[in-house]
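Protein Entry — a single chain follows
Next Lines — sequence and tokenised fold
***
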Amino acid sequence: MKNIVIAILFIFGSFNFHSRGSDLLRTLDKEISRRHVYMDIKESRIDSLKRLIKKGITLNDEYNINKQIFKEYYTYKYDSAIYYISKNREIADRLANNNYKDESRIYISKLLSTAGLINESMVNISQLDRAKLDSSLLLTYYETMEGIYYIAKSYSNDSIFAPQYEKIERTYIDSVYSLLPEGSTMQAYYNGYKLFKDYRLEEAKEVLLNLLNELPENVRSHAIVCSNLASINRLQGNYGDYEKYLILAAISDQICALKENIALQRLAVFLSQNNPEELSRAYQYINYSMEDANFYNNRLRTVQVAQNMPVIIKAYQLVGENKNRNLRASLVTISILFLALIGLLVYVYRQVQIVKKNKKNLHALNEELNKLNDRLQSANRVREESISLFIDLSSSYLNKMDSFRETVKRKILAKQIDDLYSMSDTSESVQSVQNSFLQIFDNAFLRLYPDFLEKFNRLLSDKGKVKLKKGELLNSELRVFALIKLGICDSSKIASLLHFSPQTVYNYRNKIKNNSVVDRNNFEKYVQEIGEIM
């Protein structure tokens, strides 16, 4: 159970650090993007100092101004720094001021060692007469000597000379510490640094953390303290805090516009070895480190970056190659999916077209069905009306026959034989029946086809159009073609129904056809297509 809790706490702690580390890296990226702003601020400050050197100022004043300019350039640009400290060396010679000469020599050695010119630095400072050195320069001298041997140790990085240089360096650390004012920031730093060198890591960390809280980000000592805290945590195996303090040191370097720096390079190496997800950042950081080393003209840093850069570049290239392989695989997969999608779209399109075609055919079938239904309804209506017409005619005939029978019966009973004979000899009764039949037929037919006359006349020329007399529903010609419309096309049958001779029916048909505006041979077919049942 205890092991599970520890594992959970470890995972939770790792997650929290990863989140904090990502935030710090984003902050560093932001400050790197502003590096030219910080460089402009530094250049502006240097230009302000340069403007103080005017014609007529004393050599002492010029010396002090040059020293300030040198200190600005010391961690910024080697060539400019050596130029101004060399000018001070000339002023010291002109003034024959031994303190100025010694101070200038110390600063030149300090600058040479910082630039990686260890041998030149040692040769130059060895020309000092330590016994004659003014006490005011002792602290600067010891700091310079400690720095020379620290850089010599880093530069050699071997098992023979490096331990010797470190031993000498520690002697000078003690000398520096002995001269620092009690309670000063520098004394606190060297106290922590001495503890670090003695591998009293927890004590050193406590001292340096307390000091860090007092230092703003825009001073070089802030970056130095963070760099030392990073080294302590690396020795303790606290790689999360190692990364954290390297980032903080690199942020301070950017804000201070320090081109003589190491934190960003160390961070790039760490990220490339421990965080594959940040290889792109590591590649950018190592390039910025090389850019800074070249800008400063620092041989030591250039060599260090040159040693680390191939490893980072190779790792970056491997990741790039993996990404390219994955990208190619993704492109192949996407291409296959795209082709499959195209195939699917073609299939869907075809199915849609089939559905549309089927829908269109179905619509056409529905239309045809509706027309067939309409025709069926029309046919049913015609049958109904025809039956009604037949019933009406039959009823009329039956009524007349019944009336005629009653009359005959009455005449026979009354022995009115002459009257009966006279009734059978007259045509009035037959004509009456015929007229009644025609009246019923006309009404029934026009109920079926109320616009028959209008549409019939459309088939005829203007001079041949049928004109009805007042009170007429249909005339003889129209009745002939009305029967044709009803499907009775035989002239004999038409003649029988209308009590005409077949020749009369034939004449009516020819007369109408002679005035046709459509094909004469198909005229009766057009007549049969007239009209909708109302």
The two ends are 96 Å apart (CA to CA).
